[in-house]
Every structure is written in C-alpha cells, then in structure tokens.
Amino acid sequence: MGKICWDFPLLGTGNESGNNIAAITMFKGSGVMDGLAREICQNSLDAKDSSLPSDNPVKVKFELIDVKKSDYPVFKSYEEAVESSIEYWNNSPLCTPSITEFLSNIKTALDSETIPMLVMSDYNTVGLNGVNASPHEQSFWNLLVNTEGISIKQNDNSAGSFGIGKNAPFAYSALNLVFYNTLAKDGGRAFEGVTRLVTTQREYNGTMRPTQPIGKYLYLIDDYTGRPILPSDDCPIAQMGVFNRTEIGTDVAVVGFKKSDYTDWERLTAVAIIKNFVLAIINGQLTVTVKSPKIEYVIDSERLERLLFIEFGDEPQLKYTRQTYETIANGELIKTKIAEKDDLSIYVKYDEKYSASLSRFRSTGMLINTTTNDVLPHFSVVIIVNDVGEMRLSKTMRSAEPPQHTEWRAKNITDNLTLKNRAGRYIRKIGKEIQSVLDDFDRADITDKMDAGIGNYLPDATDSSGATEGSDGLKTDVKIKEIKSYDGQVFYNSQYESAESSTGSETQKTGVKTGKKKRKKRLKNKIPVVTPGGKSTGVSTGKGKVKIVSPKIVEHRTFYLAGNKYRCFINSPDDYEKVFIQYFAGRDDDKQDSLVVKNLKLEGSPCIEINSEKIGPISLKKGVNTMYVEFSNNEIMAVVPVFTMEVSDEKQSN
Q1: How far is CA 575 from CA 145, 508, 553, 578, 620, in A?
Q2: What's the CA gap between 306 and 309, in Å, rounded?
Q3: What is this structure's pTM?
Q4: Are the CB atoms for 215 and 8 separated by under 8 Å?
Q5: CA distance 31 to 515
Q6: For residue 585, what pLDDT is reported?
C-alpha cells in the first residue's frame, strides 16, 4: 500500500551535496524579479495552445497567498526532513558555516504560522502533457519535475523546455521548495512538490543513511517507485482552491516566497514583465495579472501605454522600454534576410530625446537584451528574429543563448563547431544589416540635426565581447601616436594606453584608436607623408599667390566606431579656413597607406561626399572640432591624419 510523503532517495555511493547550487545561484538577485518573471512567462509562451485562435493571448497570473501551515501535513513532514539534515551536518566534518546558515534560514522560515506562497498560473497553454505516460513515452511533466539538465522543445518555436531555467523559482523560495500542478491538454492532472536541500538522512532498515539532496512530495508506491499526486488521492495541499483547475494550464508555486527581500514584489514583477515582454504585450501574445491582497496590476496591450508613460513613467528600468515601444509603434520597419527571406525585422526611430539603444527580441516577444550608450546618437533600434521558413536563423540564435537567455553569442555554443560558426556568421551579418539601415538614415534629411557616426553604439560585430545593458561592447586597446612636425617632416612616438572614454578625455596624448585585428589588405597606392609645399600626390599646392603650410593643431584623436566609420576630435588653437586633411593607415612594416575617404561630416554641418584621398577645403573653429569620417576600407585600422592649409602670400608675409 502506497502513501503520500516526502521521499529523499538514498545517497549510496553518490557525492555529498552542499548548498552552493550553481543552477539556482545564477538566478538570485535580491530585489530583482527579472529571473522569475522571464522564466515563467517564457515557458508559458512556449507552451501556447496552437489550436486556439491567434488573437487568444497566453494569460499568466502571479498571485501571492498566505497558507496556514497547520492545515497541511506537507509542512510538518518537511520540518522533519530539515531537522534530520541539521543533525546530519552537525556531526559531519565537512560542515561549513554556509551550510549551517542555509539550514538555519530554512528552519526559521518554517517557524511561521503562515507560509507565503507565490503561485504563477498560465492559461491558453497545453499544460504539461504526459502525467500518465508509459516508461518509453515522452512526458513534459517528467521533464519539468523529474529531470536535470535535459532540454527538449515542445514545438519548433520553443527555446527549450525545462532545462536549467526551471531552477529559477527555487532562487525566490526561503524554503528551497516549489509545488507543481497541471491540468494538461491530454487530460492528465497532477501535483508534486520538489525541494533542493543539502544532503540529509533517513532511516533505512533500522539505520540512519545519507540521502540525495533533492526530495519529492509525491505518492510513494515502494522504496524505488513513485508517481505524482492525482485528484483521486487524499492530499489537502493538492486540493487547495488555487490548484483546483477548470482550465488547461500549469501552476508553479514558490513556497516560502522571500517577501522580506522583495517588499515591493508586485511593482518589481510588473516592471520586469513589461521590460522583458513589451513586444509580446504589444502584439497581443501575452497578458499578465499581478495580484496580492493590497494591489493588482493588469498588463495587456490596451493598458501598456498608460503603464509605461503614466503609472510607471518615472521607473528608470523602463527608460529604454519606452523607446522600444515608440520605435515599434511609430518607427520605420525594414525586413531583411539573414538566412531566409524576412527572417529579421529592424525597427528604427530617431528622436532628439533618445539615448542610443539596440534591443534584440525573439519572435515570441521576449527581450534578449538591450545595448545602450547615453553619449552617442539619438537612435532607437529594435530587431526581431522571426520564425519563417525552416527557421534557420531563429533556431541558431536560440542555441547561442545562455541559460538566462540574455544574449546572442556564438561562444555559448560549446558542443557543435558547425553551429557555433554559423551563429558567429549570422551575428556578424545582423550587425552589417543594422549598420546598413543606419547608414541610410545617416544620409536622410535628419542628418543636419543629429550627431553623425550613428553606427558607433552597435555591439562588436565580431562577437568578441559580451555587450550587456549599459555597455557598448566596443572598448579595445588604443594606439597612441604623439605627432610632431618640423620643416614638413612628421615624427612618431608610439605607445599603448587604454581608452576610458569615447571622447578620449582620459588620455592626455594625441592619438588614434585601433582595433585588435591587423589590416587584411594593403592599398596599391602607397603615398609618403605629405611635405607641405612639395609635390606629394593628393595635396594641392594652390593657385595663384598661395602657400601650403601646416596649421598648428594642438592635439587630435581618432577613434574607431564601427564598420568603416571613425570619429576624430581636433583641438584647434585658432579659426582656420581652407584646411586639407589626408588620412594614412599604418602597416606592419611601419610604412603608411593613403586612404580614400567616402564622406565626411563636421559636427554642425551637412554630410559631404568626398570619394577622394584628400579632404578639403574645410574650416576649423577654435577649440574642439568633432568630425566623422567614413573610409572606403571596411576594416579596423590605425589611422593618422595629416593637416595642411592654404594661405595667401600676403597673409603669410604679415
């Protein structure tokens, strides 16, 4: 005869376990609800019932309730398991202060008369099929409750079901305890509790034996066989009203929710959902209710604008979400091809009040990440990887995500070199497509009123850095060249420093910023350093009574932005007219190649098409002049400008 109880399998020859569980720790963060909100809503979106009309959104409800401990035997038997674990570690030479504190905190949380329980329920989903599956039949119930590190997709649109991400709810439980409940589309009903403790102990054949750290609250048939708790079983906790489902879907309950760590959990959760699922909410794919005894938020497409700009209008976490919303609602949409037709959508919008941002989304409407820069141009860009055709792009990018689903990086793929290389290729191509769109805007009518070099907030297209929210991922080494000119000859004193600012204000020497890559090609036209007044190609000697001289530039710095774009800061001691500039790229043999400039934008002036090795004549104002240059070479180079100027004989003689 079986029974409902906690079961901790015997450890046998297995390893003892402490409390440092990496899969849980990665989701911890006091005062932040993002990990839980993302994991729950993502799994619900992945489990949407595709047989329902497309305008039926997935519905998710977050509700906090208080459970009277004495009404439910599950808590009494759990206390016994915790006490047994404390006794085991008190007698173990391997016990650490961390383990002692971990168990003490759980015991303290269990001392309360009521247990706070955050229940997260979804609707218009398929639930967890396979409650009554045979041993050789795939079961999504077992994947969630009874497996570790296995990720199987419920459908082609899923990011993977119940792999590492299912540990997120445990990070928010003071008891390290979660309840699962489902009414599945295949008709199955089930309830089960799971705890992730440390190694504990239980009696076996008259002797106390160590057990595994993961325990289950289930129907135990015998010492080696168990099953989930079914409606026909007499289990008070499984028969609570919140678990008495009439609609298909799944409930995940964080038992012993850490209210003291998340005192404003309702607002934190609502903000996390809006920030991470704004696209899904806009498209009507997701609606969420956040409810407690004191407040309720309803988040859907109709209420979203009010929540963003009025109710949470002062919420700093939603600064870029507001830009994203406006960009999708009012920006320009460009669809392009990375692997298949229209598999990438790009929204772009310019606004004087914007800080530069690039937000990446899955087709399900979940945000991957946002890269930002408060200094650079006022563009908001949103990209969406679409599920089209064979979904080569979307499947590849999902494979390039970490367990938290917060970035696309090829290096996250460690077990498939072909897939890793494909991901890297797609990431670089996405970067080029975004740059191309921004280049079109750079040539548009708004050029006169914006900062140029609009591609400089893009993440490194080589996928060599992990750009996260708040970083542009473009910091690299800076080659400093202190340039001095005597009688038309230019001398260099080279050294390396680090760039701490996009304006170079932290570096006291004139210099140019270079990347970490060597130049791949050399131009055929190798032009020596310009000798003012000489016959060097590319420099005009003037017409009539003029002379070519070197303006007394105090200092200048050139920084690589992205693609073939560079930013140059020129500190001029005076106002100069008829200034000419030639750029040279350093080579491995210490010689220089002259560079062809495609276009130039001096801040405050329109963009000028150049298509020449010589820029000019232009005017420089006294003080710092900011200039954006686009070269024909689409590579990272160590570039050095050489300045000359036309002056009349009369002016020179004075």
Answers
A1: 73, 23, 11, 10, 6
A2: 5
A3: 0.70
A4: yes
A5: 38
A6: 85
